[in-house]
Amino acid sequence: MKNYFNFAEHGTSYKRETLAGFTTFLAMAYILAVNPLILGDAGMDANAVFVATAIAAAIGSFIMGLWASIRSH
Description:
The chain is an all-alpha fold. Helix content is 79%, strand content 0%. It has helices at residues 7-10, 14-41, 46-71.
């Protein structure tokens, strides 16, 4: 994996990347839990807000992954 992702070239390590992934996961879990509660209190359907948030996060993650992959080559 070090060679595939060019860890040395990017100045990173397994530990740093694992911590970054865990931090991102916790932030997304928080957003998926809190966003529907807040917007549900504002009168929106909490289930619809949850689904919309999850879809938006998935699309954004996919686009950022593609963009990062293109820029790294």
